[in-house]
Amino acid sequence: MNAFTSLPVPVQTVLLLTASNVFMTFAWYGHLKTLSHKPLLVAVLVSWGIAFFEYLLMVPANRIGHAEMSVAQLKIIQEVITLSVFVPFAFFYLREPLKLDYLWAGLCMVGAVYFIFRRG
């Protein structure tokens, strides 16, 4: 047993989904900065290549997580991670301005987490 598999299932899931999301964000949005001058087909093929690595992490994350969580819980975790990865990416990599709307979106996500994880 290695150090990763000895971690609790939710921690393994969050770590894999976070790493997956970094690849996903670059696949979906990185081309806007780095390949905007290239033909669309080039951007699509590069994005697919990056997305391959996303799937190598996301599929195991969901399989591991589903041992203890519902699909709805996995989806909400994914969305929270997506916003958590996207905001710094947009600000630092794409040089987009920070908006207060990110905070409001994050607060909505807190509500979504509450409703999906509550007992009842």
How would you describe what is shown here?
Helix 1 (9-34) runs antiparallel to helix 2, helix 1 (9-34) runs parallel beside helix 3 and helix 3 runs antiparallel to helix 4. By secondary structure, the protein is an all-alpha fold. It has helices spanning 9-34, 40-65, 71-93, 100-117. The longest helix is centred in the first third of the chain and has 26 residues, at 9-34. The chain is built from four helices and no strands. The protein is 78% helix and 0% strand. InterPro entries: DUF486 (IPR007437). It comes from Rivibacter subsaxonicus. This is DMT family protein.
Keywords for this structure?
mainly alpha; 78% helix; DMT family protein; transmembrane; transmembrane helix; membrane
Oligomeric state of the chains present here: single chain
**Beta-strand content bin:** under 5%
SSE string: HHHH
Low-confidence stretches: none
Q: Count helical runs.
A: 4
Keywords: Membrane, Transmembrane, Transmembrane helix
InterPro entries: DUF486 (IPR007437)
Transmembrane segments: 7-29, 41-64, 76-94, 100-117
Pfam families: DMT_6
